[in-house]
Structure formats: structure tokens, C-alpha cells
Design brief:
Layout (H helix, E strand, L loop, with lengths): L2 E4 L12 H7 L1 H14 L2 E6 L3 H10 L1 H9 L3 E7 L1 E6 L4 E6 L18 H8 L1 E5 H16 L27 E2 L11 H20 L4 E3 L8 H9 L13
Parallel strand pairs: 1-2, 1-8, 2-3, 3-6
Antiparallel strand pairs: 4-5, 4-7
């Protein structure tokens, strides 16, 4: 079975709670990507930190279409418990997961005819992973990738390899990917974009996916990873989509 981890079909969780509206507004790109993935793969794994992604797909595709995709096991969800962001305490700073608890199955509204069957199918076609598990497995890779970016400075490195100190965060503040993210100019945003991609790659491997399509806001982010992973020092120009 040929599988893809489709990060680009996720309504990436944001603290402002508007990710459902942004997802639905992007419906043309969502439908195009879904059709491409269905043509090329037997099964699609979609990340979700709440079930607003599923609610968005139902709004875009219709109830019957999503039910059919779930029943035929063409789509599955990976439910990430929690959210991740760059967290600054009163002392050192670090990119880590946060304890935010996104919404649950109650986001599937009562207006649907199959409002009992839809949650049952979603639960059956979902796997759950705590966000901190994915972050713990990937954060050192994220730091290594960030250290090769043009925004990295050695003063960002701390004696404790588990922590990094990046400018622009207030004490006790949390920054997550969302509106206003600029991964080309803001080093915290670059760290988060790299973190998201590394989480996607980790989950793709964990769920035996042969392909990945990222939700990371850095289109050519793979160029930061390949030299480190391959030992090749010359610049690599390649966009990171499905590979």
C-alpha cells in the first residue's frame, strides 16, 4: 500500500482559533491537493491537532464524499494531542511543545445527517500521538537544521543542547505558526517551520508512509536539511512539496 503523510491537507492549529475559516477559504488548493494525493496514493494520512480539519473537509467536499473516503480507508487522521511552539520562560528559551488542548469531536456540527456515524468513523480511522513525543524525537534535528540557516548566530546556542536562545520572544511568551509567520526573516518562525517539517517526516516514517507533502511555510526548506543529511556542501535548490 502506497501512503502519503499529507501535511498540506491539515488545518494547522493556531491559538487565534481561526484555522477552520482559513482552511475553508483555501478550498481550491485543498481539493486540488486531495485529488492529486488520491490519484497517486492508496492511503492519505492527515495530521490534525483537533478535528477542525475533518470538519473543514466535510464543509468543502460534502458529507457523503468524506464518509466514503473514511469507509474505504482512503484517508486516515493522526491526532496530535497538544500543540507546539517556541516557549520562553523567565530564564533560558527553547523550542518545545506546549500544553494547549485543542477542540475535540464536538466541532463536528449537528447540521449533518450522519452526525453520529461521522464521529464513529473518524475515531476508527484515527491514531493519537502526544505532541511532546513527536517534539522530543525531532527537536535536536530542528536545532541542527536551524544552525545551517542564514538567520542562525552562534550566540543562539546554549551549553545545554536541549535549549536554544532566539531573539524576539517575551518572557513567558509562546509563538506558534500562524498568520504573520515569516520563516524567511524571523528566526523563531524559521525554527517552527523546520520543527513542523521534522515532525511530519518523523510521523511519515512512524506510519510507514513512502511520501510526504509538507505544511511547513518554508517552500525550499529541504535545502537546509539535505546538505547535513548527505554530507554534500554545495547549495541545493529544490522546492519541498511531495517527494
Amino acid at each position: 500500500m502506497f501512503r502519503i503523510l499529507a501535511g498540506n491537507l491539515s488545518a494547522t492549529f493556531n491559538l487565534d482559533g481561526q484555522h477552520f475559516d482559513r482552511y475553508v477559504a483555501n478550498q481550491t488548493a485543498i481539493v486540488r491537493s486531495l485529488c492529486d494525493h488520491l490519484l497517486l496514493h492508496d492511503q492519505i494520512f492527515i495530521l490534525t491537532q483537533d478535528y477542525l480539519t475533518a470538519a473543514g473537509l466535510i464543509r468543502i467536499l460534502g458529507e457523503r464524499a468524506v464518509l466514503a473516503l473514511l469507509e474505504e480507508e482512503r484517508i486516515r487522521f493522526i491526532r496530535m494531542r497538544g500543540a507546539f511552539g517556541y516557549v520562553r520562560g523567565t530564564g533560558p528559551k527553547a523550542y518545545r511543545s506546549t500544553s494547549q488542548s485543542p477542540q475535540d469531536m464536538s466541532v463536528i456540527g449537528s447540521e449533518y445527517k450522519e452526525r453520529e456515524r461521522i464521529p464513529q468513523l473518524l475515531m476508527r480511522q484515527s491514531s493519537e500521538i502526544p505532541m511532546e513525543v513527536a517534539v522530543d524525537a525531532t527537536h535536536l534535528d530542528t536545532y541542527a537544521d536551524l544552525s545551517r540557516s542564514s538567520l542562525w548566530k552562534e550566540k543562539h546556542r546554549l551549553p545545554n543542547p536541549e535549549l536554544i536562545a532566539l531573539p524576539g520572544a517575551k518572557k513567558m511568551g509562546v509563538r506558534v505558526i500562524g498568520p504573520g509567520t515569516d520563516a524567511t526573516k524571523n528566526v523563531i518562525d524559521t525554527c517552527l517551520a523546520l520543527g513542523l517539517m521534522n515532525i511530519e517526516l518523523y510521523l511519515a516514517k512512524r506510519f510507514d508512509c513512502e511520501n510526504v507533502s509538507t505544511a511547513s511555510p518554508i517552500g525550499d526548506i529541504i535545502a537546509l536539511k539535505l546538505p547535513r543529511l548527505t554530507g554534500e556542501q554545495r547549495p541545493i535548490t529544490r522546492s519541498f512539496g511531495a517527494f
